[in-house]
Amino acid sequence: MQQTDLLKIAKTYGDPVYVYDSEKIISQFQRLTKAFKGVKKLQLNYATKALSNITILKLMNSLGSGLDTVSIQEVQLGLMAGFKPSSIIFTPNGVSLEEIEEAAKLGVRINIDNLSILEQFGSKHPNIPVCIRINPHVMAGGNSNISVGHIDSKFGISIHQIPHLLRIVKLTNMNVNGIHMHTGSDILDIDVFLYASEILFETAKNFENLDFIDFGSGFKVPYKEGDIETNIEELGKKLSTRFNDFCKEYGRELTLAFEPGKFLVSEAGFFLAKVNVVKQTTSTVFASIDSGFNHLIRPMLYGASHTIENISNPKGRERYYSVVGYICETDTFASNRRISEISEGDILCFKNAGAYCFTMASNYNSRFRPAEVLWHEGKAILIRERETFEDLIKNQVDTKDLFLPVKENVTAK
Prior knowledge:
18 strands; diaminopimelate decarboxylase activity; nine-stranded mixed β-sheet; Diaminopimelate decarboxylase; decarboxylase
């Protein structure tokens, strides 16, 4: 996909707009599969929350991926996209017993991350197999908001609570068919990941009927030229060897599972936005675009640094700009960034916009969410229409005469 293709998409479908390159998604899936070719049974469950468009889910299904879901709505999306219930794992956090039971009725695999729900579910449904999410108390992740395996995390059952966990399993006679962990996103040090894996292996020895061990994901992708990323190939080689050794020790072949989300779709995504205003102040040159953190919140929420290119003037002289949005609060995408000279009306391209960008978009400031376009086999395919004013108000209830406008004051002549 060339910059001219992106410009044509912006002109055809309007801006701002999200664009996803299917070829990159496919190559990332194949790269991960190849890295773990050393294990006999590998299951990749795409993390729906990263990018949940139905067309993207169908693409994942066509590649042989399973699905990792965190809400009953994501389960329903997966079923609508054609996934078999057995290919979907439900890994929520802090949801009600009723929601977990609803997912179980749909036939998907259940992953439970707290003792209270585990005891309730096991008491009522001892014959439904469950996976258990363990908190290994290992800090991993590029930002405190996406590090979920540390001791103060709300996610998972603490390794220090294993005796209590085993007591619940024994008393309810429930069937535990999987063990799971997820330490965090943007993992750089694979040795930390391998260390956490050893904790999971040790925990797995407590359960006799396991079918799989799920190591989560969180693999880091590069956000700019020269940026570091998780060494998937080295991790695949080392973890595959260790996993195979554990299977021999355990007595049978288990499935090694992962939940890649960002790794599969982040680099495939591009966010295109038009420059409304170039504003010079006493110390800064602002490029204000027709978007804000209502469409791309990661720089503000996680401190994410997305590469920004001026695809309308790619060979222009580079100057320093602070790229900002149109929201009524501070929404700075980048400060003092070197970008080819920007003029009003130019289209800026934000890279790495495939994961946790559209799915975290909102209607803040009563703005519409953008369209989504898939670039597939040299063609642009619209996979979500841009919202309209009717979409904004369709679920609001007309209260008619509940409140009446103030009558104009009548002044005597």
